[in-house]
Amino acid sequence: MSESVIEARDLTKVYQMGDVEVRALRGLSMQVKRGEVVAVMGPSGSGKSTLMNIIGCLDRPTSGEYILDREAVSGLDDDQLANIRNSKIGFVFQSFNLLSRTSALSNVELPLRYAGLQDHRQERAEEALEAVGLGDRMHHKPTELSGGQQQRVAIARALVNDPAIILADEPTGNLDSKAGQEILDLLLDLNRERGTTLVIVTHDPRIADQTQRMIHVRDGVVDGRSK
């Protein structure tokens, strides 16, 4: 039995909106095993986005415990969370989030720069771009690439630090069906070849059906359809 790379125990998240208290998470618990491919699904207002912000170390729970790659991160301060994000999490967003005026290679190097790494930085970025099939597009700017190619750059950027997990938030949402399937196939290939743990947030059941497991979030908890 492989170990858990993500373990959330009884997470709550309460927001104060003026005089109103909004309980986004209500004692949610979940696990993701190392090397798994998991889809997280849920309607608007379900708590799914709040959960993803906590998993991605972009926010902290009000109570409960979150353990990422054997490290308890629930109580870390902002600087510590930033270090965890940069070293243990690769993000892939629907909107790519690339710097438009710099090359694909420079975009992929960014996490290494933030980590203060000097040695072999360009070499590692080049290897990541080769891994996503963009070895011949390294010096192109995002504006010179198709949407599918831009998302491949984003995946290479997510991979370059060899993170514990890749958190992909609607990664095919801005792509047509053919390019979207190619991106999903690429992510699944990376999982098979590298054992990369993938957590994919999606509204699309066709994407979720290609993952190993679905986690449905509703009313701030994991509901009974999850498996």
Would you kindly provide a written description of the structure presented here, covering whatever features stand out?
With 227 residues, the chain is an alpha/beta fold. The chain has one domain: P-loop containing nucleotide triphosphate hydrolases (Rossmann fold), CATH 3.40.50. The protein is 33% helix and 28% strand. The protein has seven helices and ten strands. The protein has helices spanning 48-55, 78-88, 104-114, 121-131, 147-159, 177-194, 205-208; strands spanning 4-17, 20-33, 37-41, 63-68, 71-72, 89-93, 165-169, 197-201, 213-218, 221-222. Strands 6-7-8-3-9-10 form a six-stranded mixed beta sheet, sandwiched between helices. Strands 2-1-4-5 form a four-stranded antiparallel beta sheet, with helices on one face. Strand 7 (165-169), helix 6 (177-194) and strand 8 form a beta-alpha-beta unit. The protein is globular, with a radius of gyration of 17 Å. The protein starts with a strand and ends in a 5-residue tail after the last strand.
